UniProtKB/TrEMBL annotation:
<comment type="function">
    <text>Could be involved in septation.</text>
</comment>
<protein>
    <recommendedName>
        <fullName>Putative septation protein SpoVG</fullName>
    </recommendedName>
</protein>
<comment type="similarity">
    <text>Belongs to the SpoVG family.</text>
</comment>
<keyword id="KW-0131">Cell cycle</keyword>
<dbReference type="InterPro" id="IPR036751">
    <property type="entry name" value="SpoVG_sf"/>
</dbReference>
<keyword id="KW-0132">Cell division</keyword>
<dbReference type="Pfam" id="PF04026">
    <property type="entry name" value="SpoVG"/>
</dbReference>
<dbReference type="InterPro" id="IPR007170">
    <property type="entry name" value="SpoVG"/>
</dbReference>
<keyword id="KW-0717">Septation</keyword>
Amino acid sequence: MQITDVRIRKIEKEGKMKAVVSITIDEEFVIHDIKIIEGEKGMFIAMPSRKTAEGEYKDIAHPIKSSTRELIQNLILQKYNEELLHSEAV
């Protein structure tokens, strides 16, 4: 599995959510609405989710293996940090 594209839409408002991301896998499958969140222990991603009738949020799409989630998170956060550095330089 290769992540072939990462598109980041930064959120300008103050708050914990910093960006919304779409990734393309193998130039054939897209996952939209991955969120970059600033938590107490640093940045992390939240996969797309939906609120249930009970008020809980359940992921709509997510990696099965923790190693895959880590790979996706590391790549997204790397791209996000690159965009931050680029926007500060401009």
